[in-house]
Amino acid sequence: MWLCAQTSLGRSAEAWPTAREAVDALLFRAGYNTAIVVAGTTLLGIAAGIVGVFGLLRKRALMADALAHATLPGIGLVFIIAAGLGVEGRSLPVLLTGAAATGVLGVLCVQWILRRTRLHEDAAIGIVLSVFFGVGVVLLSYIQTMKGGNQGGIKAFIYGQTAAMSLGDVALMAGLALAAVAAAGLLFKEFALVAFNDAFAKVGGWPVTLIDLLMMALVVLVTVAGLQAVGLILVVSMLIIPPVAARFWTDRLRTLVILAAIIGGLSGYFGSVVSSLFPRKPAGSVIVLTSGALFMLSMLMAPSRGVVAAAWRRGSQRFRIAGDHVVEAAYEAGGRLALADKERFGVARGWSGVFREMTLARLRAKGLLTRRAGEVALTDRGREEGARIHRNHRLWEQYLISHADVAPSHVDWSVDQVVHVLSEELVASLEAELAAKGVAISVNSDAAGVHPGVGGRA
Predict the structure, then answer these.
(1) pTM of the model
(2) Are 183 and 74 in contact (CB under 8 A)?
(3) Which residue has the higher pLDDT, 28 or 248?
(4) Domain 308-381: which CATH class?
């Protein structure tokens, strides 16, 4: 099912898989090679998600990119050395050993530049990334001139070639991924401490430098493990996208790690399955696209930080504040408000006719007012709500005059920005502060309407 054959433009159309083929691939029944590849990439996604969390919190996300690009010269060098010694240079353990060596060297170079120069981290990463990758491309060009170089297959490490993976390759990749997960679990407390507050960790006597190196060592493991699956250019996405997607869903670190592992695992699982069903689609790219799709879903639909939830909250708050303005205006007008009074219905606030009608419909649904010909009238519940809003307005107004030295002629605009979000606890605190200064807030009503009283004055 995993095909690498090139096709002509005339045969670019690809048949869709049947439902049975899709189910077989999802249930690891699509063939031995497909099953082990799906299992290996799933484990890789889990490991990348867990390790990526700490890199993200430590603000080292781009360090993984530099590390991934720095592996290319190691792959080329070890292949050349192995060929010179008469050793099989295409062996995955040999190539990954070279990749890990130059990857670590690249990270050390970034650290050295940061400590010995005044360059910022982004500049140091850019220098190391471009120089190491350039050296790797030169070595690849040299390898192509060597006898058997064209058959080396090491260019697959740039973009990934999951289809060429053997059982031994998958076992090695899975072993590295499991080692990274186990190490992250054992060092969870230390990593969390350094990621959130390295200054506190230093004062407490923790070996921050050593913990940092161990953290980067796990990034090296995951990067090296993912070279053949997704390639050195795309492997960084497996370390960044799952943690970022998980961050939309939670504020707790342990939950974040679990969600990142789940998102990373699902990316590897579904990406490999889709690639197996569409053989001409490279698995590495499909895995990254799957991860990106999960990120988009998280960004849009997460209940607390998602775009949809945020838009809903902003819209609800805008309608609530507009409703407060209408109820308060009607309360101050004696319980009734003419629809022709455009100033009180938000013309100065930029309300459209549709927004006004939606606001009034929302207030009617909440039982705060009724609508009659040419006017709205507050219900008993609406009068109570109007009195509460009006009193809070005057309370905050008096607090700003008494405590913030805001001029009475300028206080109304400031009050309007916060009065609609005062909590009961804050209202009680304001009352206590003013009472301690002998200032009382009262709202008195008469037949002509409702008038605020400050300190007993109408």
Answers:
(1) 0.78
(2) no
(3) 248
(4) mainly alpha
